[in-house]
Design brief:
The complex is a heterodimer. Chain A has four helices and no strands. By secondary structure, chain A is an all-alpha fold. Chain B is mainly α. Chain B is 65% helix and 1% strand. Chain B has two domains: 51 residues, no CATH class; 238 residues, Growth Hormone, Chain: A (Up-down Bundle). Classes of the chains: A mainly alpha, B mainly alpha.
């Protein structure tokens, strides 16, 4: 995701977003499938729910985080570039 | 290359490094997990053989996997092209499937909750803080619904309940006066989040529970989840600037998708209950899906011993 930080025009942004989408699209379906190869039918829902809840709680704070990052000023980088640096380097599928 | 550009390039590697760590740390499957003893591995294998897959660690065969699209129930889940064979009257009209119906509320709430909360008229700081609480209750509700679903060994009513929550949240928000009934409007925001993740997670579990063949399972999951994600295209095109600040058409569209999803889920559930009864009569014994070992379910609904996991 933080590759996006170095982008300078719309075409570049679009191309990077395309590759980002390609890389992350397989993530959730395969996590679901991976879990079905470990857990029995009746215990799958809670296992998967714990995984999704963790991801949801993380994204609950992402709005707050991005708002805070947009408050950064007096720097050489635009604030949205900072956002991508920070979020791109955390594990944010 | 400036200094900042170079620091970006190095920083980007953390995610990649974690991917490498995950690849090394996570076991390939339960039967080869390094942290299990021989006996535990055997138990892990038997668990899955009895209660997950027809053939554990089955080799991937594409031709076998795509056969899942021959099942009418798969199309109710993805996009309902064909009617369920027994459901009269037959129709050629294509209507959205459950994944499509859950994709719209899911994406609308996750993309536009800040916009919806902003309408409540708080300051920028508060607006941002006030989106955190609904999202957290959403995650808690997901856990509550999923644990209840596992406890009761039944899936579809919980999927339907999730749809109802988001739909009701949208309807309440659309119908109250946001300035004079602020608390109600904010409560509606909480309600919206209760039903965003649960239908998606429990629906995925539901159809995975019904597919004993690992190839078919990965195929339907691999197509179904992106179908729901694709509905972000709908969500980001219904919140139009000219509808600001209340976004009536978007709220109504989202609620309508929720209602349709709920209806489809209940219909599919009802079909499965009826079909299970028919199978019970034919088989001459009353059994539940969870009591049938999955190794006997290799051919899916074609097997006489097959029952739907509700």
């Amino acid at each position: 995701m933080d590759r996006v930080t170095a982008v300078t025009n719309f075409a570049g942004l679009f191309a990077l977003r395309w590759f980002l989408g390609m890389a992350e699209s397989a993530f959730f379906p395969l996590v679901i499938y991976y879990q079905t190869t470990f857990y029995r039918r009746g215990e799958l829902a809670r296992r998967l729910a714990i995984f999704y809840a963790a991801s949801n709680i993380a994204s609950a704070f992402s709005g707050l985080l991005s708002w805070a990052v947009f408050r950064i000023d007096n720097t050489s980088l635009a604030s949205w570039r900072y956002l991508f640096i920070i979020e791109g380097n955390l594990i944010s599928p | 290359m400036t200094l900042s550009d170079r620091s970006l390039t190095t920083l980007g590697s953390i995610t990649i490094l974690f991917a490498g760590f995950a690849y090394w740390y996570l076991p390939y499957n339960a039967t080869t997990a390094k942290f299990l003893t021989e006996e535990e591995k055997r138990v892990a294998f038997l668990r899955l053989q009895m209660d997950s897959s027809s053939i554990v660690n089955e080799k991937f065969v594409f031709k076998d996997a795509v056969k899942i699209f021959k099942h009418p129930t798969s199309w109710v889940i993805l996009c309902k092209r064909n009617p369920i064979p027994t459901a009269p009257p037959p129709t050629n009209k294509s209507i959205p499937g459950i994944e499509i119906c859950l994709g719209v509320p899911l994406q609308s709430v996750s993309l536009f909750l800040p916009v919806i909360v902003k309408r409540l008229g708080y300051s920028a700081v508060k607006t941002n803080l006030y989106t955190v609480a609904p999202n957290i209750t959403g995650a808690i509700m997901l856990l509550v619904l999923a644990f209840s679903s596992d406890l009761t060994r039944i899936r579809f009513p919980f999927v339907a309940l999730g749809f109802i929550f988001t739909m009701m949240g949208m309807v309440i928000y659309a119908s109250v006066n946001v300035t004079s009934q602020l608390q109600v409007a904010y409560f509606a925001c909480f309600m919206m989040t209760w039903g965003t993740s649960a239908p998606s997670v429990i629906l995925d579990v539901w159809f995975n529970n019904n597919i004993a063949n690992e190839n078919k399972r990965v195929m339907l999951t691999g197509v179904g989840v992106p179908v729901a994600n694709l509905m972000g295209v709908v969500s980001s095109n219904i919140f139009l600037p000219q509808d600001a600040p209340k976004y009536f058409p978007a709220l109504i569209t989202t609620a309508a998708f929720g209602a349709m999803g709920c209806l489809l889920t209940l219909s599919l559930g009802a079909y499965m209950i009826l079909d299970n009864k028919k199978r019970d009569r034919k088989d001459g014994r009353k059994v539940k899906a969870q009591d049938i070992p999955t190794e006997l379910m290799a051919n899916g609904p074609a097997d006489a011993s097959y029952r739907w996991f509700l």
